[in-house]
UniProtKB/TrEMBL annotation:
<protein>
    <submittedName>
        <fullName>Monooxygenase FAD-binding protein</fullName>
    </submittedName>
</protein>
<dbReference type="Pfam" id="PF01494">
    <property type="entry name" value="FAD_binding_3"/>
</dbReference>
<dbReference type="InterPro" id="IPR036188">
    <property type="entry name" value="FAD/NAD-bd_sf"/>
</dbReference>
<dbReference type="GO" id="GO:0004497">
    <property type="term" value="F:monooxygenase activity"/>
</dbReference>
<dbReference type="InterPro" id="IPR050493">
    <property type="entry name" value="FAD-dep_Monooxygenase_BioMet"/>
</dbReference>
<keyword id="KW-0503">Monooxygenase</keyword>
<keyword id="KW-0560">Oxidoreductase</keyword>
<dbReference type="GO" id="GO:0071949">
    <property type="term" value="F:FAD binding"/>
</dbReference>
<dbReference type="InterPro" id="IPR002938">
    <property type="entry name" value="FAD-bd"/>
</dbReference>
Length: 424
């Protein structure tokens, strides 16, 4: 089958690799004229790594990423509230990887060039809309030089991110993403490894949170690339209320250190000098915490959505890239299960893909609106704003444990290998 994918991001490229492996002829249109390693750190949960492993990408990931050993919750004084072992250390079949988003996307792009053929990847082609005929879909393309053209396929997958043109075509009334009043500053700093050099920490509370994790193996000089995120709540009334974010959401909008020091300037932990890390930023970007309401339907005939185009969610719980990768595996599986020899089979496959993925992703959008795992931080801040001598005096560790397990189960974490995964 001829499949066209709009968007050469993490979801689109993973889908391209999975569908090409299954024998489909795949083409990708990416609006950027030249691909650059954009973004800062992201996390890939073990179930997503299992999918990437099934595509033969594990060695490349191991060479460039950090196999995360644990997620630690801490208060704003740096005291540990809870340590959740992750990846192989947590008994999963696969590692959890912390990785530079841009480097990861470049690796997927190069792999897709090798496997699909360089002429199957079209940089500088923005899909601006699509129309359907009885047995085909025609994508309307705007080239970076202003030319217009069309591409024909049996199936069109909209993996074109949070500002998806295909989503807008089918849901024109939707409007801009919804903002919850929180602003995120995302930076990278070269620093000495902290803790064991493989731990992700979330510290603070709902009004001010500092998230930090390494995203590359230590260098020869002992320094390591550290990713960090400062969340500051600018508007209290926005929780779930859908405010309009200050300016269009742009993943590459530069931020300023001076906006952060009034809030985080005195956060000095035994194990990390937070203002020092912030001031050492090599790169600093600003992004409002936005999502969109879950859609009642992703597919329209021979067109469907995937990744952020289908279910943009707050970047909480390491789900953004992970869920896009799970979508990629699910659509490939559905096409394998149902076949593609006629329109009815294709429709059944797209329905099966959506039935599997849409309710789960809607649930994660909703859980993240209720702050996901950050709920733990708020509970402790409320009960012990000045810190504690003994955690047990503040909260029953079993209460945290139950909460973490519930969130992870609902978000699709599984300690068993995925269908395509090998146990290792
Ligand atoms: C430049 C950039 C930087 C990011 N940085 C971070 C980060 O630091 N941390 C984080 O947590 N998340 C980041 N994200 C988001 C994160 O990558 C996604 O949440 C997640 O990986 C889901 O991936 P996706 O493929 O669905 O969407 P995306 O990764 O957003 O990919 C969408 C792709 O589609 C392309 N595109 C957009 N519109 C069209 C169109 N009409 N036609 C063709 N192509 C189109 C975009 O250029 C992009 O390559 C970033 C996204 C982008 C685009």
């Amino acid at each position: 089958m001829d499949i066209l994918i709009a968007g050469g991001g993490i979801g689109g490229l993973t889908a391209a690799l999975a569908l090409q492996r299954d024998g489909h002829r795949v083409q990708v249109c990416e609006s950027a004229a030249q691909l650059k390693p954009l973004g800062v750190g992201i996390n890939l949960l073990p179930h997503a790594v299992a999918v990437l492993d099934s595509l033969g990408l594990l060695p490349a990931l191991q060479a460039m990423a950090v196999p995360t050993a644990a997620l630690v919750f801490a208060n704003r004084h740096g005291q540990t509230l809870y340590r959740d072992a992750r990846g192989l250390d947590g008994g999963y079949s696969h590692p959890q990887f912390s990785i530079h988003r841009g480097d990861f996307q470049m690796m997927l792009w190069r792999t897709a060039q090798e496997r699909l053929g360089a002429d199957a990847l079209h940089a500088g082609e923005r899909v601006v809309g699509a129309r359907q005929e009885a047995d085909a879909v025609i994508a309307e393309i705007e080239h970076s030089d202003g030319r217009r053209s069309e591409r024909r396929a049996d199936l069109l997958i909209g993996a074109d991110g949070i500002h998806s043109a295909l989503r807008r075509q089918f849901h024109p009334q939707e409007g801009p993403p919804r903002w919850n009043g929180m602003m995120m500053w995302r930076g990278t700093t070269l620093a000495r490894p902290f803790l064991d050099g493989r731990t992700m920490v979330q510290a603070g509370h709902r009004r001010a949170k500092f998230v930090v994790y390494p995203i590359a193996p230590p260098r020869a000089d002992g320094l390591q690339l550290i990713n960090w995120i400062c969340d500051i709540r600018l508007r209290e009334d926005g929780l779930g209320g859908g405010l309009t974010a200050p300016g269009r959401e742009d993943w590459n909008r530069p931020g300023r250190v001076s906006d952060l020091l009034p809030t985080f300037g005195h956060w000095r932990f035994d194990w990390l000098d937070v203002p020092g890390v912030i001031q050492g930023a090599q790169q600093l970007l600003e992004w409002p915490m936005v999502d969109r309401d879950p859609l009642p339907r992703w597919r329209q005939g021979r067109i469907t959505l995937l990744g952020d185009a289908a279910h943009p969610m707050y970047p909480i719980g390491s789900n953004g890239a992970t869920q896009a990768i799970m979508d990629a595996q699910a659509i490939a599986q559905a096409l394998r299960d149902h076949g593609t020899s006629d329109s009815a089979r294709l429709e059944a496959a797209l329905a099966a893909y959506e039935d599997e993925r849409r309710p789960l992703c809607a649930r994660i959008v909703e859980m993240n609106r209720q702050e996901g795992l950050d709920y733990i931080l708020d509970m402790v801040e409320e009960r012990a704003p000045d810190g504690f001598e003994r955690l047990e005096d503040v909260i029953d560790p079993a209460e945290i444990d139950t909460f973490v397990r519930r969130y992870k189960a609902a978000a699709g974490h599984r300690q068993q290998p995925g269908p395509d995964a090998q146990v290792r």
